[in-house]
């Protein structure tokens, strides 16, 4: 587990896209964040108290989250200098950059000197096992997508919030770097050795006997020729009882691949169910999550309604409109047939 | 490239299964093998001249192939001592064990001292890229399977032999450790990072303009819940024009998983075609390869005939009966429509 509370690093950038990871943590785990760090000319804010490292420690922070993207994912001199100062102030450092903290001797020395931890969230655990596909206790939901970067993490987190609000025990299980920083643990699935993809998910979401749900963050897409292997192993390891399909209605082609079309929603649902049935023949789709941020509000609501009609599934933009419609369907499909077992209340 | 000719190591074992890798090399690349090494109480032979390391070097050997399985895949004292002696005699060492040659200081020192190479065929190249799914020139055939260990490598090699005999340019492309030792190069796909599965195959089988075929060794099975992610990425990276499905007719359940049934051949063909179509919509099945080694000869031939009737595909045991029936189908589907371009003769 990465230690909370967090202190979020924004650095000196003025590019809002480059602080995506810090923003994700602030949005979905505000209770874990005591403040933010930026330095001139950086003028970005996540609305948290701005402080220095010593003030953050005084405010209770345990870990500096380097939730910024740098050119090529490298650790530049400014980032290293700030991280070293944070270690000297008494913070652990967590980062999801391609360049690893542990490969920077200055940081390794500063961590040792201060008895602090360096956490590279792109490093998978070294004790992963091959999956076995054996049915295990507990309920699982997996978000899947027509493409990469269509809102699977956000949808999963919105579902966690909506299900908890309705009394479910429901826990987000992270498979990507931002998700891992939000959940404080998880599996960086894209960095796992190919033989262990499904096994890593079996370990991430082991048997569960409290009547609750694991909500597993999806990755990639069965229709993305670069990453469908990851998505396949994830489906098999998750053995989901329910899937939610995530879709970006304005995406013109598969991410990074102008020569690949985005699949039809119905085809994507059918393909995901077919793959999922290998380890859970009872899997059902319980909703469609659209990222409508690029659409006017009335058009967004209209599109959700039409998509629901076309697919027979509840459809919502979970970030803009909440995930309640999907939780209603989960209620119908699971809770009503298992009274008292799926709810904690 | 691993340097040939090879000298094959059998060690001191009396267990024929444990020399599977050395046997595979001797079976499929006899022209690359100058001799074999065994020591008491080992009484196994691959029918090659038995010699010591100095004699092997004198006979032209460049590389000692440690094609043996040891308990847990570790490098035991005897193996290390023999490998060191082989390095001192002037041989490179190639191995596909879980324990890496490069992690044994004595071997690293001996290799440096003698200017020789240590080749761990389970180590993927460090410069792998993410796949892009873009159509590339050349013809490709991929062997797929209803399960793991049903003869995909053997089938691919038998196809290479049969196609070459008929004048095709056809080259085996290896994705597993024994295959890599046979081909002298390749990608150990199960050890590749998840994000690079399809990209690794795109690099293994780049565009080809000589009218010839790449015959790509399959791995795993879409129906094996431990490894289907690897098989999916392999299908997408290979973008095969043709697939051959391999099957073990006496397999009672999925390998290592008594709780998983082997799929019906027809279902496995359909699922593989569906996944393959993402990167090659024109993919066709050209044959079924059965491993009939556990059946009486008449029963084997009868089963092949019945399987051909049921699937509408040529069916053979390529190791026992040759792969000509499948090459006939390749002729029909490809060569006749592309006169002069698919044959080297």
From TrEMBL, chains A, B:
It holds the Pfam family DUF1611_N. Gene3D superfamilies: NAD(P)-binding Rossmann-like Domain, P-loop containing nucleotide triphosphate hydrolases. InterPro entries: DgcN-like, DgcN-like_C, DgcN-like_N, P-loop_NTPase. Residues 130-327 form the D-glutamate N-acetyltransferase-like C-terminal domain. Residues 48-124 form the D-glutamate N-acetyltransferase-like N-terminal domain. This is EBNA-1 nuclear protein. It comes from the Bacteria.
